[in-house]
Amino acid sequence: MALVTTKEMFEKSMKEHFAIGAFNVNNMEIIQGIVRAAAKENSPVILQASGSAIKYAGHNYLLKLVQVAAEENSNIPIALHLDHGADFEICKECIDGGFTSVMIDGSKYEFEENVALTKKVVDYAHSKGVVVEAELGKLAGIEDEVHVSEDDAMFTDPNQAYDFVQRTGCDSLAIAIGTSHGAYKFKGEPKLRFDILEKVKEKLPNTPIVLHGASTVIPELVNMCNEFGGNIPGAKGVPHEMLKEAGQRGVSKINVDTDLRLAMTANIRKVFKENPSEFDPRKYLGPARDCIEEVVRNKIKNVFCSSNKA
Hints:
Layout: H1 7-16, E1 20-24, H2 28-41, E2 45-50, H3 51-57, H4 59-72, E3 78-85, H5 88-96, E4 101-104, H6 111-127, E5 131-136, E6 141-143, E7 146-148, H7 158-168, E8 172-175, H8 194-203, E9 209-211, H9 219-227, H10 240-248, E10 251-256, H11 258-274, H12 281-303
Parallel strand pairs: 1-2, 1-10, 2-3, 3-4, 4-5, 5-8, 8-9, 9-10
Antiparallel strand pairs: 6-7
């Protein structure tokens, strides 16, 4: 199957009240682990690359790897998405270069400037058959090019969200309800503003809603990293039960990056610690890939509830 847009998978998710996992990719092993899990669960899946991932791996390398994954797993729909596109230029590059979905992140700008930039990307993308995700509100945390302090974080205003979607024509909207980027999402008890989500969905019942910064920061993987030489104290993410509730209450796309990084890093550290003479990349990247598959499969089946929704 060729790569698809997110349009049909989001329509199904809104109708049947489940979420679709959007997993960040940087190399072959991460892509293979994610897609193997999605194929086994018969689930739609979104593979997304940030600007930093594209710089690291190369646009064409990532594109071809994802295209091969789609060809070899033709029974499931796979979309290739630009995560946190910083400007019109990178969005255009990805639209012209084979991506089926792009995100323009104008959340760092004032409302009117965000509207204008998003509308510019939407107009170009739609002329090429590509869909657009936009963002309103500001998530705290650090991830690749995204750097937002807690003082600058801002919840999404439901009234603004309605106005924003009407004026830009964006296909999906990322909102801020309490998640954050990176491995340190909460200082106290985890809490999401489901009241904001509910109000946004009341005003935008037919617009797919996106949740960024939604890794669980799986404690077992954090402990594993630390056990084998890492230093990630106090890391805390969004509990699985909160993410499951978000999907049931109207979130169509849930982003995952940190959990994949932890899965890869923990397993590589384990191999190096237990077998210091090992230098065959297949011997440490293989277990990392297997762990990514396990993590993704669990999220698809038990958190996003997208199994057998392909």
